[in-house]
Amino acid sequence: MSRDTTGQLASAAAASPLQIDLARRILERIRDSGWAVGTRVSVPDLARTFGVSRSPVSAALELLVAQGILAGFETRGLQLARDVAEIDPEDILPSSPLEDLYRRMMRDRSLGELPQDVSEAELMPRYEVSRGVIRKLLLRFAAEGLVQRLPGHGWRFAESLVGEDAYRESYEFRIVVECAALRSPMFRADPQLLAPVRRAHERILSTILEGKSLASGDEWFRVNASFHEGLAACSGNRFLADAVRQQNNLRRLQESAGFEQLPGERLEQSCREHLAILGAVEAGETEWAEALLRQHLRQASEFASPARAP
Amino acid sequence: MSRDTTGQLASAAAASPLQIDLARRILERIRDSGWAVGTRVSVPDLARTFGVSRSPVSAALELLVAQGILAGFETRGLQLARDVAEIDPEDILPSSPLEDLYRRMMRDRSLGELPQDVSEAELMPRYEVSRGVIRKLLLRFAAEGLVQRLPGHGWRFAESLVGEDAYRESYEFRIVVECAALRSPMFRADPQLLAPVRRAHERILSTILEGKSLASGDEWFRVNASFHEGLAACSGNRFLADAVRQQNNLRRLQESAGFEQLPGERLEQSCREHLAILGAVEAGETEWAEALLRQHLRQASEFASPARAP
DNA sequence: TAGTGCATTTTGTGCAAATGAAAAGCACAA
DNA sequence: TTGTGCTTTTCATTTGCACAAAATGCACTA
Questions:
Q1: Three-state DSSP state, A158
Q2: Of A52, A233, B202, B294, which residue is 20 to 30 A from A23 by alpha carbon distance?
Q3: Contact at CB, B159 and A238, closer than 8 angstroms
Q4: Which pLDDT does position A127 carry in this prediction?
Q5: Considering just the CA atoms, what is the radius of gyration of chain B in Å?
Q6: Is residue A92 within 8 Å of residue A63, measured between CB atoms?
Q7: pTM score, two decimals?
Q8: Are residues B171 and B38 in the same domain?
Q9: Residue whose Cα is closest to the C1' of D16
């Protein structure tokens, strides 16, 4: 059976971004819920969970079948075919060409290979993609404040790409919002929300302690995001929760485009700090939790000015 | 000479948005610099000032010529033909159909005539515009946090501020964010930013004191928004500023249904409170300003649970 | 020397058809 | 009932082209 460069089955029809995304989330869900081999996988159930129709879910499951993670029952339907604890979603799923391009453009700009002012027509042949793709990317950059439209023709990159300014401001904002979340009068530690977060942290911590490096940097980013979003969600204030989620979304791509990796020790420390904060929250000691959280964020910001951070 | 419904010369070729925008800015520049009738108007000079090429500037000047504001020299070139102090740019320049549609959609949503979840295909026939236009509008709403893409198909409008909970949460969020803005270490009272805000408040206040009612409810909304956004902008933290702006957008969505009127006395009080806060900020007494602001927001929230508020 | 008017080139937008993907419906099986 | 497998329908993205608008160059003049 022939495989292409990314290790995917070449025979599979091209998967849509939504399908790939769903496949990843389904995989994570299976892993975090600890399903046993042989468990039935229900399409309508997953479709409800993720708020989409059955079509893309079916296609996503097909991807997983192609990877040998799922298999058909003898009669019909699908079941879990093997243990997924050791599987890293990033390794087996195709990566989006759009995200690759995003990183590439960002790198090119920071290396000075792209001028400050660019036109769409200039970028099209350079990256060998259609105008639509370029537009989409530029709009995304613009939403993140990394680029802005010039009147008339062209776009201009911001002075500092991932500049220290933006970093400082981002951390300041997060301290404000997340601490306010803990202090909110409606704050309630929701075990159903926080338990999976705790499990994910414990899993990561044990991975580190076994001396293995993390499967992917992206994994830590996700767990980190789930921690902060989970806390904010407990605040009972949708706007605080939204603000935290928004920050995470904004930073996701920039982080993954970053060059420096977070050293293992720092990662371990972050993980422990998160667990400590979770402990304080679950014990109802929100003031102590707030102090820990503030300290955690401050350290993180000092640690990594223009680098990835917890 | 025939004129269309907006009072424009019908004969003129359709002007592009950039041209209209330039015409307005040129007009404001002429007015604010107090040019005398007969002053020469230089195209390359204006082009440099606004960072565009000469083409759109020429076209913008054509618009002004058509309005009798500029006239050709006998030989060549253009000159100012009349005093512009009394001219309101809004009155003479064509208005963008996109802007009108933006308001219309917002109003329809706030009145419940649009469902929370919409598809592009559903909006196209409803507003009788092409997909491109719908798309552009939805992207704009999305950038303002009023709408978000659903996975798969469709878009979803943000939870509106209906209901006690949402209101309370919104005020809690604003207190957190705006007070943090005042406390930000990078906070600098920028006169260039705050002076127009102050002037607008004084204008409104004097209008009230003369016993006249406000020109439009929308006017107070805009001034109010500019106050809060202006303060946040002084924080030097773009995320704080964005968060405030987003809240205002949400509120605007709510109020574009626009039936509730703020009683005159409450409006006057809000106005005075704003001015007091501005005074404290300009005097560098940010702590006092913060106390005032917190009080102001708290009162506003108590005053108007499900109604318009400052 | 800077500005104008016009011509040319470059760049971006709008539209419609074609393609691809998701939603919705239905018969049937466990 | 709930889930599956398939089909049909609806919806959205892509693509290519025609057109509109902005940028640029040049000859000419005050």
A1: coil
A2: A233
A3: yes
A4: 95
A5: 22
A6: no
A7: 0.84
A8: no
A9: A130
Contact flag, residue B54 CB and nucleic strand D, below 7 A: yes
Ramachandran region, residue B8 (left: φ > 0; alpha: ψ -120 to 50; beta: rest) = beta
CATH at A139: 1.10.10.10
| Chain B residues within 8 angstroms (CB to CB) of chain A | 18, 21-22, 50-53, 56, 139, 143, 145, 150-152, 159, 166, 169-170, 172-173, 176-177, 180, 184-185, 236-240, 243, 247
How many C-beta neighbours within 10 Å does residue B250 have?
Answer: 20
Q: In whole angstroms, how large is the CA radius of gyration of chain A? A: 21
Domain of residue A173 covers 164-308
Q: How far apart are the first and last CA of chain A?
A: 41
Six-digit token string for A37: 């081999």
- A293 to chain B, closest Cα gap in Å: 17
Distance in angstroms (rounded) separating the CA atoms of residues A284 and A289: 9
Q: Which amino acid is at A176?
A: V
Sequence length of chain A is: 310
Does A168 share its domain with A66? no
What value of ipTM does the predicted structure carry? Answer: 0.84
Mean pLDDT of B227-251: 94
Q: Are residues B55 and B153 in the same domain?
A: no
Q: CB–CB of B151 and A53 under 8 A?
A: no
Q: Do A173 and B247 touch (CB under 8 A)?
A: no
Residue ending a domain, among A110, A137, A157, is A157
B101 CA – D10 C1', rounded, Å: 25
Predicted confidence (pLDDT) per residue in B289-305, tens digit: 999 999 999 998 877 65
Alpha helices in chain B (DSSP H): 17-33, 43-50, 54-66, 89-92, 97-110, 120-127, 131-143, 164-183, 191-209, 217-234, 238-255, 264-282, 286-303
Q: A106: part of which helix (H) or strand (E)?
A: helix A97-110
Residues having Cβ less than 7 A from any atom in strand C: A 13-16, 18-19, 52-56, 59, 75-76, 119-122, 131, 135, 153-155; B 40-45, 54-55, 72, 76-78, 130, 132-133, 136, 150-153
pLDDT of the residue at A111: 84
Which amino acid type is present at position A84?
V
Q: Mean of the per-residue pLDDT values for chain B?
A: 87
